[in-house]
Amino acid sequence: MNQFNLPGCLFIEEGACERLNEILADCIPGIEKKRTVIATEESLLPIMGAYLDEMKRDLPKSELYLIEENSFEEAMELAKYICMKDVEVIIGVGGGKVLDVAKYAGFVGKISYICVPTTLSNDSLSSPVAVLGTEGDARKTFKCTIPAGIVVDVNVVINAPLSHLQSGIGDTISKYTALYDWKLDAAHRGDRVDGFSYLLSDMAFSSLCYNEEKSLKSKEFIKILTQALVLGGLAMEIAGNSRPSSGSEHLFCHSLEENYREISISHGMAVALGSLVSCRLQGRDVSRLETVMRAYHMDMDPMNWGITKKIFTDAWLKAADTRKDRYTVLNEVALTSDLLGGIYDELRR
What we know:
6-stranded parallel sheet; 14 helices; 349 residues; 2 domains; Rossmann fold; two-stranded antiparallel sheet; Dehydroquinate synthase-like, alpha domain
């Protein structure tokens, strides 16, 4: 059985940032005496500046560290700083770029990491991985440790761009096809699916899909989306891999990233589009996914994202090669240009 960790604390509250120091003291006793780095980015200072100033006042050994880019080099530079300065705690305040860099730097530096997201674009806030840029525009997923604590202020996240929240929805609904592919993989290898991880990931999907709140700017929706993303991350931690959240739909996303870097589409929207295709390839009813995406006004037409039929077809034909060790429905279906072209036309209707 895989050995796993769980966050020591989880707060999803309205006004959580207004009592952040109290929450941090609960997460890490004696934090006020520890050398702490508060990692964020310059663009967030006008929004989070008052909270950051208050945090620094109550944490006399803390200092601000501005992250410029989501890259492996940046994370390693921060990790080096942590080690050289004997930092004991790192607090990431921001979106995916800040959180992934801070998470990986904390992992390399072997210190406690607290996650304070300002948006909800994917399940990395609680996952055991960090996605960082490497050479050129390429990105790589690195294994690391999940946060020691997660603090989500609903009043902060509700002001995130709608596209970020839609991306978070996309990353959540993609679990529908990822879980199916996980079962295919387990059957192919003669292995077993971890039941508890499967349950958590399925709960993440179901909690979002079957809730009655459809307003992206509702506090209730923000709480539901946060819970779904946290569950998705924890499912990966317990499974010891990303199979509860990543299947053929993610391979399509990786293929776009690797072969068509000029396409401007978020990770969450790419995997959501991927799920619409994977679901068809799996021979399942896609209407459930389409209903959710329509409810949250998510654009299902690949052309509107700059994905032409040629790019769409080529990306799918190359998708399996992005993770050759990963068995999915792509290993069981004979993909052809005609088949994929027909699916593309369906998505455009």
